Amino acid sequence: MQSSASAALLSWTIDARGIALLLLVAFLYVRGWMRIRRLLRHTGDFDRLFAFLGGLAVLFLATESPLATFDSFFLSAHMAQHLLLMMVAPPLILWSDPVLPFLRGLPRSFVKEGLAPFLNWMPMRRIGRFATSPIPAWCMFAFSTIFWHLPKFYELALHSGFWHGAQHASFFWTGILFWWPVIQPGPGKLTWPRWMPIPYLLSADILNTALSAFFVFSGRLLYPTYEAVRASSLGAQDDQTLAGLIMWVPGSLIYLIPTFTFAMRIFSAPTVTAAPVRVPRRPRARPPSIRFLPRVRRVAQAVMLLIAIAVMMDGFFGPQVAPLNLAGVLPWIHWRAFSILALLVVGNLFCMACPFMLVRDVGRKLLPAKLRWPRPLRAKWLASGLIALYLWAYEAFALWNSPWLTAWIIAGYFLAAVLVDGLFRGATFCKYICPIGQFHFVSSLISPREVGVRKPAICRSCGTYDCIRGNERVRGCELYLFQPKKAGNLDCTFCLDCVSACPHDNVSLISIVPAQALIGDPYRSSIGRLSKRTDIVALALLIVFGAFVNAAGMVSPVLGWEHAFWGNMALFVVAGAIVCPALTVLLSAALNKFSSATLNVRDFARRSALALVPIGVAMWAAHLLYHLATSFDTAWPAAQRAATGSITSMSMMSSPVWLTPAQILLLDAGLLLTLYVVWRVARQYSGKIATAAALVAPWAVLSGALYATGIWILFQPMQMRGMLH
Amino acid sequence: MLLLAGILFADGGTLQFQKRAGPLDISLFSSPVPLRAGHADFSVMVQRAADRSPVQDASVNLHLKKSDPENVVEIVVPATHAKATNKLLYASNVSLPSAGTWRTDIEVKTDGTTTSVSGQLTVLPPQAPAENYWGYFALVPFVILLFVFNRWLKRRQRFTYPRARP
Asked: Do A231 and B144 lie within an 8 Å CB cutoff?
């Protein structure tokens, strides 16, 4: 048994969404702060960084600590929480001069294209100036403080999660406005007399003192709710007195200390601020992570190979019960989800750590590897056929439920990789055959990173072309991607051979805007123009529509229809993943023809069809995230059984509360990105907005229909996989 | 016996009822607010009636029962500190299969004695997804509107502040 005090201290409200938001904000600030520091060559300025992180830590304490858990039980806890939100976090955050670091921390194109029009909008600037000027800021702060402490509104916030959130948000944001004229973070400085902060802060302290005195001396219980839910021997009236004292003493100190500082500044001689210390600019080094990645790659491949062997062995010789077998759990639940999440967060990490590569390299030493891949097969048609075959086999043979078949598929993969790359030159297997590779190539078109050139000018003066030819130390790109002409991640396995080969240290993992590769249509090395590649478009459509077919195949209504109407799975897969995209794309293209007589419909349709990749990848991610979230801990019993022959516990079905919102957000992001890409492509074909809108319309309807289908699927009862039924 | 039924937002959501049983005050909180069929969290606070100090070493069980003319549904679940955010409470996650009036018995074992209180819960039908997640669905049209506004502003600013010609 634990005491009440220690139990209370353990009562943290850990909300994943709140923490994720705080981490994102911290990441953006630190990124921008580092960029500014590098740009201005400052050696110091750590106080601002610590102030910002301190402000976020205070916000974390206010919203996630036992203060938040007990705010509905004790007024004193609630008051301490409000104090942190209004009087501690805002000044710390403003002290860090947050505006500029944030703007530098965000992607430059987003700031330029997305934010700049709003920030330059005159009414917005006027509102900003007005809200941060002393009198309105003081009034809003005072109003917020008084309004939310009126019993009627305070009780409303106690009884409703929504109004409670609104109360906290208004405390924090009016706190930011109140402290703005006092701290005056950049850009722009307020011109008011030096003595003005003194009456500004003192008047706020008088208000604070009056309110807290009312809490202490009123003699009546202001908020009866606390009497009803009293969770300790401390009476509600005493709790109210304590809350008043918290507001009075620490609250007043927070106003009086800066008041005193301002007074001291006025009465003391002006001090000369030392100029920031600058250090000479150093040549910008390649990000440190990239240096060890080519070496790490081999280790990652070896680890993946060992896992693949374990999965195969268990699949062949272990019990044929999917949830208890590594082959029934790891490939279908964990590997698929982690590889697509890695694609969305970093890039094509699976191909980088592909276990088949090690075996293939051994095969090359035994076999000639001299033949050329036949010219008619140098396209994505074969790989598309294999993906269609996989989609069918997945449903028809319930691959996820058969460890034995899963093991055979992996073994077949090893054999195919060894034979193809052992007989043919280059990475033929990866480029033209591997369905997993094609899936990753297409999906990585929306990744935020790519292997690319840092400074194009260096490539223009390069005479060695080691990135594609290789040298005596390391081979060049086996997929024939010439770095200066490479755009996007298509056909890039992230092998990083080009990074190691480049004698100028000019190839690196660079940040890009997700889906940027879909907006332009430059000539791409070894690929050509996407607007001319029907095979790549067909592959992308198969992956996009396949996402919906694959997810639909596990929801109850569709399973019922499959048995009632389709008869066999092949028909369902062909209809959903081949006929449906073909018809809808042809229809959209036909409608485009009506919109613009001069339009090159084929090119536009190919590029618009590729724009559906984000919504398709979002559906894959939402679907696979479901399996990962509900069956994540299935790996442990399967591994335990494979290692020791027995299990101590079986995983229980659980669906975390964040799962459905996260899935919807993924689909939201996918739809918005698709619409944005289609719009940008349409604008390249038409200078007139009306014509561009007409061109976008059929594709917007198609992507909206896919989104609606995805949402419908998410809300259907789904089969749990990796679980014993 | 103290009876306080209100809608008080606490660790587990709403205070459904608070009753005295012997030397103990027992309160039941539930979420979501209002209570609906589907996943629900129940939290129980056990206090000594004399000084309202929380009892930390009790064993708490929840019995939920709904009787229809056709069938009877009964759910029995333990409530523990481990499942509670507020470690002074005992919590349990329950999946309520249907809407209607559910009879709730809370059984508390402490110091070798067993006490129980009972009350009734009104459970509403589950919310439609569109109602439940409207904010997430509204994000798409909201961002589209922002984008349209952004383009309009950009176009307008291009005419207002034309770029200097070289």
From this structure: no
